[in-house]
C-alpha cells in the first residue's frame, strides 16, 4: 500500500495548532477546516506519536463520533474507520497513516495539519527540526478561565454521575498546573520561537472573528474571502470569558506566584 500512496510531500510542512487545553483550539480547528482549501485534523497525532495509544492507526480506529475528521476527508468517523481497516489493514507507522489520510482528499488543499494542545507546544523545537516549513497557531486564554473551566466541568461531571476526565480538577490548586505548564513553555520560546508562530488569544479572537481569520490567512499565505469563511464568522463566538470573576471570585488568593507572574507576562493582568 505504501508504494502506491500519493508522493506529494506538501503536508510535511504543516500548520499545527497547539497551546494549552481549554483555550479554544478545538473550535478553531473545526471551523478553519470548513474552508475547502484547509484540512486540519483534531488531535489525530499525525505529527507525533500518541501518548497513550499504540499508534496513530490505533488512535484513529478507536476514535468516537465526537471527533469527526475534516469534511474534505470523510463525512463521518465510521466511514473513515471502515476505509482505514480496508485500505490499511495492519497497524502502520504514522507517516504512512498520515499520507493515506491526506491522500483521500479529492480537491487541492492549500493548508494541511493537525491540532494537539500542549503536545505540539512541548515538542515545538523537535518538530521545527523534523519538518522544515512547519508553522504553528498558538492558542492562548486567561489562565483563570481555564482553571474555572476545569473546576466547573469536574463538578458538572460528578453531579451527572459521570467519571470526571483527567484534565478536570476539584480545586484551584490542583487545576493550576495544566495551564501553567503550557504557559511556561511558551514564555520560554516566545521571544525566539523555532518556527513561525501566530498567537491566537481566545478573548480577542472570538470577539473579532473576521480579524482572526484575516490574520491567519496572512500567516499561511492564503487570500481572505469572506464567503469561504461564512461558518467560521458566524459560529466562532466567545464562551465563558471572564467566568472566573463570578465562579471563583477569590481565585487569585489561591494561585501560585508563578501562575500570577505568567498571567502578567502574557498580558492577562
Overall average residue pLDDT: 93
SSE-based structural type: alpha/beta
| Total beta-strand segments | 5
Q: How helix-rich are the residues, as a percent range?
A: 40-55%
Number of distinct helices: 13
H and E string: EHEHHHEHHEHHEHHHHH
Radius of gyration: 19 Å
Percent strand equals 5-15%
Query: Looking at the structure, what is the overall shape?
Result: globular
Strand order in the sheet with the most strands: 2-3-1-4-5
Low-confidence stretches: 1-7
Give the termini separation. Answer: 54 Å
How is the biggest beta sheet arranged? Answer: 5 strands, parallel
Task: Give the helices and strands, then pairings.
Elements: E1 15-19, H1 25-32, E2 38-42, H2 56-62, H3 77-87, H4 94-103, E3 111-115, H5 119-122, H6 124-130, E4 135-140, H7 143-159, H8 172-189, E5 197-201, H9 202-207, H10 209-220, H11 230-235, H12 244-247, H13 257-265
Parallel strand pairs: 1-3, 1-4, 2-3, 4-5
Key phrases:
13 helices; 5-stranded parallel sheet; single chain; alpha/beta; about 270 residues; disordered N terminus
